[in-house]
Amino acid sequence: MYQFEYHKASSVDDALNKLSGADDGKILAGGMTLLPTMKQRLAAPSDLIDLAGVKELKGIKVDRSSVTIGAMTTHFEVHSSPDVQKAIPALAALAGLIGDPMVRHRGTIGGSLANSDPSADYPAAVIGLGATIKTNSREIAADDYFKDLFETALGDDELIVSVSFPIPKRAAYQKFPQPASRYAMVGVMVAETADGVRVGVTGAGPCAFRVPEMEKALTAKFAPESVADIKVSSDGLNSDIHGSNEYRAHLVTVMAKRAVANA
Question: Which residue of 32, 70, 83, 198 sits 20 to 30 Å from the alpha carbon of 43, by its own alpha carbon?
């Protein structure tokens, strides 16, 4: 690990001021990806700005139509929240499948979405539920947020403040985890929302995406057999030692079918 300056932010504005004053500053949320990357000397930020003390970024609020989660809320807090379990059981269940207990107690929803790891679980929920990501300066719709591998719509001077999930009529998440890391080789969130059926996929491609053909079929009939014969193109999907792009394409259909059955 290279030398760096450590700063503890007291507010969102304080964090942004410290970030703008650094040569190559990075925001530290849970640190589940950034710190291991630094230890391997694959990243060398000049400054780390820690958000752990920023109270305004923590907490869960539920109203009649949505669940809003502060960016520094941990995966464990989302998973164990009675309010989330009641309003969006699929979201609570998804959070409980992330990593291991240490990761769930340290990792945060804002850190996960800002990093946009192609195998992270939360992106499937954001896409599948049609969430809105609120930053310090604007609101970003789910369909406009994920751009490419580790690339999002966030600007250099933007910080995720919270994520708002509309409460669906029904939803479920299913994933095929890589056995060692528990990252999603493929994860699928299927949701019947007020605006229609949505299918969000993570793990399969460079970033989370929707499957319009499945959404159309499930709108006509919300049943596992509606997606059972839909084949997702393997073009552009991830391929590595854990699974080829063809294998991941097949898993999208398998996980979607299971998610619909669970919903």
Answer: 70
